[in-house]
Amino acid sequence: LCQDDLISSLPLNTEGEVIKLQDRRKKVQSPAEGLDEAVQILKQRVADKQLRDSIITTMTQQWQMDSSEIDLNLKECKVGDRGAVALAEILTSECTIRSLNIFECGITHLGGVEIAKALDTNAHLQTLNLSRNLIGEESGRVLAEALVLNQSLESLDLSWCQIPEKTAVKLIGALELNSSLKTLELWGNNLGSASAESFLRTHQKNPQAARVELSYNILGDSGATFMAEAWKLDLPGNHLYLKENLIGDKGATALAQSVKDHQTLSLFDLERNRIGDEGAIAIANMLKVNQSLREVNLRANSIGDKGLLAMMEAIEVNTNLKQVVLRGNLISSEMVDSVKALKHDIIEV
C-alpha cells in the first residue's frame, strides 16, 4: 500500500499536510440539542414512518439512560440506503453516538459510502458494525481513507460485506497510520494471502496496529505463513482465530512454530481447515513448550490417530491446558472409545 495514494484525496492545509480531524470538528453543543438535531434529520430524511419512529424511540431511550452518549442498535432493521444517509448525517451532527450497530440492514455501497465519509469528521463513534451489508469496493476504499483521519473509532466490523481483496489490502494498510482502532473484522469476504501479507507489512511498520480478524476466508497455507510471520513479532492479544481458511499442514505448522514462545495467547483456533496428522503433531509439539495456551480448537479437520496420540502426549507435559477439541476429525472409533474410557476431561473427540 502506498501511503501517498491513500491520502491523495484527503483535505490538505496550505503546507500540504493532511488537516487533522480535531481541526475540522464543529463546536460541540449540549447533548439535548444534539438529540433534537438528530430527530429533525430523521424526520426530513426517512420517509418510512415505522423505521423513523423506531430509530427515534431507540435514540431517545438511550439518551434518557445516558444523556452524554448513545448506543444505537438497529440490528436487522430495514434501514436501507436512505436510512444510512440519514445516519451518516447524524454522525456529522452534534448528536453523540458512541456505538452504531447496523448489522444486516439492507445497506449497499450507496449508503455505505455516506457512512464512511461521515467518519472523516466524527469524533465520538467508538464502535461501528456494518457486517452483512453488501457495501463492496467503493465503501471499503472510502473507509480506508477515513481510518487515516479518524482517531475515535476502536472497533470496525466489515464481515460478510463483499469487500474485495484489493480493498481489504487498503483497509489493512490504513492501520499503519491509525492509532485508535483496536479491532478490524473482515470475516467471510473471500480474502486470500494478499490480505495476510498486508497484515504482516502493517505490523512490521506499526507494531501497535489493530488486530485484523480473518476467519471464514481463503488464506490457505500461503496466507497462514504470512500470519505466522506476523505472530513472530509477538503480537498483543490472547487469541489466534483463523477458522475455515483452507489451511493445511504447512500453514498449521508455521502458525504453531510462530506462537511457541508467545506469553499471552490463551486460544489457538483452527477449526474447519484441512489439517492432518502432520499439522496436529506440530501443534502438539508447540503445546509442550507454550505455557499460556488454555484452549486449542481443531474441530472438523483431517486429523487421524497419530495426531490424537501426539495431543495426548502434549497434555501430559502441559498441565495448563483446559480443553483440546478434536471432534469431527478422522480419528478411528477404537481410539475415540479409548479416550472416552480414560475419561479425559481435556480432550474432546
Outline the structure in words.
This protein has 13 helices and eleven strands. It is elongated, with a radius of gyration of 23 Å. The longest helix is centred in the first third of the chain and has 17 residues, at 49-65. The protein has helices at 3-7, 31-45, 49-65, 80-91, 109-118, 136-149, 165-174, 193-205, 220-231, 249-258, 277-287, 305-317, 333-341, and strands at 70-73, 97-101, 127-129, 155-157, 183-185, 211-213, 239-241, 267-269, 295-297, 323-325, 347-348. With 349 residues, the chain is of the alpha/beta class. Helix content is 43%, strand content 10%. A six-stranded parallel beta sheet has the order 1-2-3-4-5-6.
Can you lay out the helices and strands and say which pair or pack?
Blueprint lengths: L2 H5 L23 H15 L3 H17 L4 E4 L6 H12 L5 E5 L7 H10 L8 E3 L6 H14 L5 E3 L7 H10 L8 E3 L7 H13 L5 E3 L6 H12 L7 E3 L7 H10 L8 E3 L7 H11 L7 E3 L7 H13 L5 E3 L7 H9 L5 E2 L1
Parallel strand pairs: 1-2, 2-3, 3-4, 4-5, 5-6, 7-8, 8-9, 9-10, 10-11
Helix pairs in contact: 2-3, 2-4, 4-5, 5-6, 6-7, 7-8, 8-9, 9-10, 10-11, 11-12
Strand order of the largest sheet: 1-2-3-4-5-6
Low-confidence stretches: 1-28
Rg calculated over all Cα atoms: 23 Å
Beta-strand portion reads 5-15%
Average pLDDT, rounded to a whole number, is: 89
Q: Helix and strand string, N-terminal first?
A: HHHEHEHEHEHEHEHEHEHEHEHE
Shape descriptor reads elongated
The residue fraction in helices comes out at 40-55%
Q: For the terminal residues, how far apart are their CA atoms?
A: 44 Å
Structural class: alpha/beta
